[in-house]
Design brief:
Chain lengths: 699, 223
């Protein structure tokens, strides 16, 4: 039943062959040298400082939700960098390939990338940015913050959490590997059918795309189960639904989408896999296949997916804006319902991605109206944030700048989305770069929120703040760069420039395209300052040290434990009395972090099993991509055996005795020397307005 | 330490969904309990089964997508044999009976679990295993027959989706049998620990879910 393949195949190494390694392409060789150098520097650094054991014990085998979150974010950051390089390559190709006179290099007729290579770059860019950069970063943030916000010790299933991390990493690693061994899909991040079918894409590119997404989306689904169960089952006493912080609510809404939508993607990719491996006819152009079936199924996942990404960003804004407006969030209830309604409605609009495919006026009208209705809860949210800031004492620390910037992007992206929701307009601009500019406004909103979230919660996780001056500079470079790239892009969309062009036939578009290229240059500058900010902040971390309540006007539970957070989160589980418990305690003068009495703490033990499962999944993915059947069979058998063996291990937890907890708290082991009396370190006032000082201890 | 706890429930009425600018729901008093000293443990078993329900939901979505594909492709015969030519409702009905009796056996296993009877549980699992295996045997017979007649999935859209939907269900059944085998060993070695009990409960959910899916397969595909 196996399909007949073009090209050689051997039982031992499947489709692998030396000519699959593009050593003759200078761009890829450069990337390879860079990656090897980066890995060597990392490995050398670890060896030099003798940290391999530390790395193994504290990171690779950890089940601590905060460390897992940090690793998710690191994976996402690496992929964000890779995706950004892809973006720069796309822009550079376009600026070099305008008009028939433009020169060609490296085997390209125009520009420096032949179409087949260019297609891979934009496909990788889209897939990476959405699924391997932004998704892991957001999942990582939810991992770190949600258990803290609800007063839990860890996630509901710490071990599963680590499995999710490593599966996501495997997906990212497969995408990276496709750069050096074989090639990546050239069919867009959406996998246009029937282009992804074997006759039209006989190479391994599409297979890499399939398995990278398939494996990591298993991780995302498991993560969604974990977060929902955590929120439902692990809340501290008194944390009733109406007191749940809004970020946690949006995490809930997002993971409901994750739980329900990602399986649809899994099924869709599975059917495509059957087509490519066994020769079935689900999405083929003949023999009873149905191409629109793929398009529908893909977007049934695809549209909820974009809201999977945007809802945590909304949650982040809902945390940052009240803190720096020094007052509670306006319209909590409306905010919560809007999040849930968006999650539900995201299921009813998928067809707006292909109005032009001839569904007929009635169907288009339905989906057009449904799409516009999604704008209502989104609008409610915008007004709530605006009213939170209205007549507030606003402080523009770096997180707040990112949050306000995100609101502008939401406005632009939302309004252009509304335009696209009108089929009559969509027929004009569908598949043009106007659509690209629309969703980049949205995705940039998410990126802005992520940048805000990182600067906001960084002191919570690491105990010191990131440098504000450099952070603000990064922000402004991002703003100008985004304007430079995307305003011309909207314009070009109206002028009729279609998406995914490797050659641009209108020389008159050149000035706008040059503007976009300059914008890319500004992102590079922002990247430079970003690296510098991290370097400076880590170097001078004593100077930037932050107490439990790093921004002094924070409101939710995560600010009520030490910074950095000790591995057990809260020495004793807090009892919650109010919606913004920490703000409530501050107003009541109950800011002591020291409980009356300590208790034994149950914690899950570290385990290498998730990492092993990840390694086996990587072997499985690799074997399937290259059709090395023995490797695939071996690794899947090994996965099942590892799972069974692990299930016999009943010794997965340990107890920290109360006395030990007390000793650690007294020593401030987790508190890195900050005061735990609830009073704030003296060095933070420097010209800041702040909320009224905490009342002295009266107990 | 010995502070009386204020009843959280009293606060709720006041704070439930109240909106606007008030942060302070209640003022703290001497009796306010800030830290939870009741040493409550989260109920491990219910947390696990809840998560498994969520997993089943995600599995249901996979099958929903497959049934959608079936609805779209069901008449795309492309010259290959049609549903009426290859599907035998009577045969499938006997398979249905097997699925149901296996689930019934597993239900009895669960009542043995309630009585804490190790032998009862193991016997129950063995019986559901055997009936489940018989079901898979029938399925194997059906599909090897089709293949030997050259009616393979790559001949048409309909055959593709027919194979996919029935065999995805079959794969779930295989997985369930493997799980049962592991559970028998685990019960013999560890007895009814928390871990074993929640796994048995989850396996029950899983097994009944397979029956539900089979009912859908039977009605949609075979009838
Ligand atoms: C009010 C909310 C929104 C509306 C009304 C809206 C509307 C639309 C429409 C109609 C399209 C299809 C355009 C076309 O292909 O011709 C589209 C494309 C897209 N939108 Fe949105 N959208 C909204 C929010 C979002 C959000 C929040 C995100 C991401 C986080 C997003 C990401 C995307 C992406 C990625 C595409 C293009 C996918 C592709 O073809 O590659 N949108 N949007
Ligand atoms: Cu959409």
């Amino acid at each position: 039943m196996l399909v007949h393949l073009q090209g050689p195949w051997t039982p031992l190494i499947g489709r692998l062959a030396l000519n699959q390694i593009p050593y003759d392409n200078p761009v890829i060789v450069g990337a390879f040298i860079f990656s090897v150098a980066a890995a060597a520097v990392f490995a050398g650094g670890v060896t030099y400082t003798g940290r391999w054991e530390y790395l193994w014990r504290n990171w690779l085998t950890t089940v601590d939700h905060k460390k897992i979150g940090i690793m998710y974010i690191l994976v996402g950051m690496v992929m964000l960098f890779r995706g950004f390089i892809d973006a720069a390559m796309i822009r550079t190709q376009q600026v070099m390939a305008v008009g028939p006179q433009s020169a060609g290099h490296l085997g390209a007729l125009h520009g420096y990338m032949p179409p087949y290579h260019f297609d891979q770059v934009y496909s990788a860019h889209g897939a990476i940015m959405l699924l391997f950069a932004v998704t892991p970063i957001l999942v990582g943030l939810m991992n770190i913050i949600v258990p803290l916000q609800i007063g839990a010790r860890d996630m509901a299933y710490p071990y599963l959490n680590a499995v999710g991390l490593w599966l996501t990493t495997v997906g990212a690693a497969l995408v990276m590997l496709s750069l050096f061994v074989g090639d990546f899909s050239h069919a867009g991040w959406v996998g246009l059918t029937p282009l992804t079918e074997l006759p039209y894409s006989p190479g391994v590119g599409v297979d890499y795309w399939i398995w990278a997404i398939q494996i990591s989306s298993v991780g995302t689904t498991l993560g969604a189960i974990n977060l929902i169960a955590t929120i439902v089952k692990m809340r501290a006493p008194g944390m009733i639904w109406s007191r749940l912080p809004v970020f946690t609510w949006t995490a809930m809404a997002t993971n409901i989408i994750g739980l329900t939508a990602f399986p649809v993607l899994a099924a869709t990719l599975f059917l495509l896999t059957l087509d490519r491996y066994l020769g079935t006819h689900f999405f083929t152009a003949g023999m009873g296949g149905n191409i629109m079936l793929y398009t529908d199924l893909f977007w049934v996942w695809g549209h909820p997916e974009v809201y999977f990404l945007v809802l945590p960003a909304f949650g982040i804004l809902s945390e940052i804006i009240p803190t720096f407006s020094e007052k509670p969030l306006f319209g909590y209830t409306a905010m919560v319902f809007a999040s849930l309604i968006i999650a539900g409605a995201s299921w009813m609009v998928w067809l707006h991605h292909f109005f032009t495919m001839g569904a007929g006026p009635l169907v288009n009208a339905y989906f057009s109206i449904a799409t516009m209705l999604v704008g209502i809860p989104t609008g409610v949210k915008v007004f709530n944030w605006a009213f939170t800031m209205y007549r507030a004492r606003m402080r523009f620390d770096t997180p707040m700048l990112w949050a306000v910037g995100a609101l502008f992007l939401l406005l632009i992206g939302g309004l252009t989305g509304m335009m696209l929701a009108v089929p009559a307009i969509d027929f004009q601009v569908h598949n043009s770069v106007f659509v690209i500019a629309h969703f980049h406004s949205m995705v940039l909103l998410i990126a802005f929120a992520i940048m805000g979230a990182i600067s906001y919660w960084f002191p919570k996780v690491f105990g010191f703040k990131l440098d504000e001056r450099l952070g603000k500079r990064v922000f402004w470079y991002w703003v100008v760069a985004s304007i430079m790239v995307f305003v011309p892009m909207y314009t070009l969309g109206f002028m009729g420039m279609t998406r995914r062009l490797d050659y641009i036939s209108h020389p008159s578009w050149l000035p706008l395209i040059v503007l976009e290229e300059i914008g890319i240059g500004l992102y590079w500058v922002a990247l430079y300052y970003q690296v510098k900010q991290i370097y400076v902040s880590v170097r001078d971390r004593r100077k930037y040290r932050a107490g439990p309540d790093a921004w002094w006007t924070t409101r939710s539970l995560e600010w009520m434990t030490h910074s950095p957070v000790p591995f057990y989160n809260f020495a004793v589980t807090p009892v919650v009395h109010a919606r913004d418990e920490w703000a409530w305690r501050k107003e009541q003068g109950l800011t002591s972090l020291r409980p009356d009495r300590y208790q034994d703490i149950h914690m899950p033990k570290n385990t290498p099993v998730p990492l092993i499962l990840g390694a086996l999944s990587f072997a499985l993915g690799f074997g399937l991509v290259w059709r090395i059947w023995w490797l695939s069979a071996l690794s899947i058998t090994a996965i099942v055996i590892v799972l069974i063996v692990r299930s016999f291990d009943s010794n997965t937890d340990y107890v920290i005795p109360a006395a030990e907890v007390e000793r650690m708290e007294r020593q401030g082991s987790g508190a890195s020397g900050t005061t735990d009396t609830g009073r704030y370190p003296a060095d933070h006032t420097a010209g800041k307005r702040r909320f009224r000082a905490a009342r002295p201890q009266n107990r | 330490m010995g502070l009386p706890k204020i009843k959280i429930a009293d606060l709720d009425a006041e704070t439930l969904w109240n909106d606007g600018h008030r942060t302070i729901d209640v003022a703290a008093s001497d009796t306010t309990v800030l830290w939870d000293s009741s040493h409550h443990e989260h109920d491990a078993i219910s947390t696990r089964t809840f998560g498994f329900w969520l997993y089943m939901l995600s599995d249901a979505m996979i099958l929903a997508a497959l049934f959608t594909a079936y609805a779209v492709l069901r008449h795309n015969y492309a010259g290959a044999p049609t549903a009426a030519q290859i599907v035998h409702p009577g045969y499938a009905f006997r398979e249905t009976l097997l699925v149901f009796s296996s689930v019934l056996a597993f239900g009895l296993t669960m009542s043995a679990l309630k009585q804490g009877s190790r032998a009862g549980v193991i016997n129950g699992i063995v019986v559901s295993f055997l009936i489940g295996a018989a079901f898979l045997g029938m399925e194997f017979h059906e599909f090897s027959g089709l293949i030997s007649q050259g009616i393979t999935p790559e001949r048409s859209g309909f055959l593709s989706v027919y194979y996919a939907i029935v065999l995805v269900h079959g794969l779930h059944m295989v997985f369930g049998l493997l799980w049962m085998a592991v559970m028998v060993v685990q019960i013999m070695r560890q007895g009814f620990t928390d871990n074993v009990v929640y796994r048995l409960l989850n396996l029950k959910i899983f097994w009944q879910f397979q029956a539900v899916i089979w009912v859908c397969v039977f009605t949609v595909v075979y009838l």
